[in-house]
Design goal:
Blueprint (H helix, E strand, L loop, with lengths): L2 E5 L4 H12 L3 E6 L14 E4 L5 H10 L4 E4 L6 H6 L1 H21 L4 E7 L23 H20 L2 E7 L1 E3 L17 H10 L5 E4 L11 E2 L1 E3 H15 L5 E5 L5 E2 H12 L5 E4 L8 E2 L4 H7 L8 H14 L1
Parallel strand pairs: 1-2, 1-4, 2-3, 4-5, 5-6, 6-11, 7-10, 8-13, 9-14
Antiparallel strand pairs: 9-12
Helix pairs in contact: 1-7, 2-4, 4-5, 6-8, 6-10, 8-10
């Protein structure tokens, strides 16, 4: 039985990866600062360490006490506006943490890493066709840059130290687990579906819609929503390639686009709530349409999105938001 170290395993995506690994008969070790994660999200079957990946002594303790076969690296900050206001915070926490993790992996001869990246590495997408992994990477904010720098560090270290990697660039992750009581919560959530569901739960909240003058069917931006469980299933599948010394970069999305207003309408249908919103100005750099091509993940991993209907994705998120 192989053991996987999950950094940021008490967070939204990390906690879903933990249960997916456990349900596939992996042993799991979690490290999380709990700054943005929640201890109750960590499955009791996993071994938990509270602390920072940059803590050399703690990481040595983890690698000495556990025979780690691979690392899934989710630890990091994700709020784009905050990254613009405080870029050094993002480079220090996202990029430097990746360097520290790799240093610990090299010291203890752990060769396999799965990295949680983002479609933000592509920057301002001007075309309407699905985006594949060959699309130019020109991030327009420090968050995207901090992730792209981490990717480049991993690629260079793979050549120098013989690491194997799977890098996943996420599009819009949404939904919650149907079996376990985990989902997206916390301060500063920017996910449209979660914000919409929070507005459904609290009738005093008004959802902001950023722009209605895009060249789309209803003037609002079109996005690709992937369910968090579908997302982490791809990560677990990629372990098989890593253990065969195969490295890849993958886009992960549904391949379907839904406008903001379509998403709000779907949420109204699922929740039977009014959901108030107001149109505000576009955010700088927001593209009109962003849809992923996940053909590479489908072909190489045998991966397929199970949640292809946006209403079903919203429904799983609504069950979780209602429970809070």
């Amino acid at each position: 039985m192989k053991t996987i170290l999950v950094t940021g395993g008490a967070g939204y995506i990390g906690s879903h990866a933990v249960v997916e690994l456990l349900d596939n008969d992996y042993d799991v070790v979690v490290i999380d600062t709990l700054e943005n994660g929640f201890k109750e999200f960590v499955d009791k079957r996993a071994k938990f360490y509270q602390g920072n990946v940059q803590d050399v002594e703690l990481m040595s303790k983890i690698f000495q006490e556990n025979k780690i076969d691979a690392v899934m690296h989710f630890a990091g900050y994700i709020r784009v506006p905050e990254s613009v206001d405080d870029p050094n915070k993002y480079y220090f926490n996202n990029t430097h943490t990746t360097m520290c993790l790799i240093q610990s992996m090299i010291k203890y001869n752990v060769k396999n890493i799965i990295f949680s990246s983002t479609a933000a590495v592509y920057g301002e997408i001007m075309e309407d066709k699905p985006i594949d992994e060959k699309h130019p990477t020109v991030p327009i904010n420090p968050y995207g840059s901090s992730k792209l720098m981490s990717e480049r560090i991993i690629l260079d270290c793979a050549k120098a130290y013989g690491l194997n990697y799977s890098i996943f660039r996420y599009f819009n992750v949404a939904g919650a687990h149907e079996k376990y009581p985990i989902g997206q919560k916390g301060v500063g959530v920017t996910s449209l579906i979660t914000l919409t569901l929070q507005a459904a739960k609290d009738s005093n909240r008004i959802l902001e819609v950023f722009g209605n003058d895009f060249p789309t069917k209803d003037g609002t931006g079109i996005r690709d929503y992937i369910h968090v469980v579908d997302l982490v299933k791809a990560h677990v599948l990629s372990l098989k390639l890593l253990f065969k010394n195969e490295s890849n970069i993958f886009n992960l999305g549904n391949g379907n686009g839904f406008s903001v207003l379509e998403t709000v309408e779907a949420a109204r249908k699922v929740t039977c709530k009014k959901i108030l919103y107001k149109i505000t100005g576009r955010r700088k750099g927001d593209p009109a349409c962003v849809i992923a091509s996940s053909k590479k993940a489908q072909n190489l991993l045998g991966w397929k999105a199970h949640y292809t209907n946006v209403e079903k994705i919203i429904e799983t998120g609504w069950h979780f938001v209602k429970s809070l």
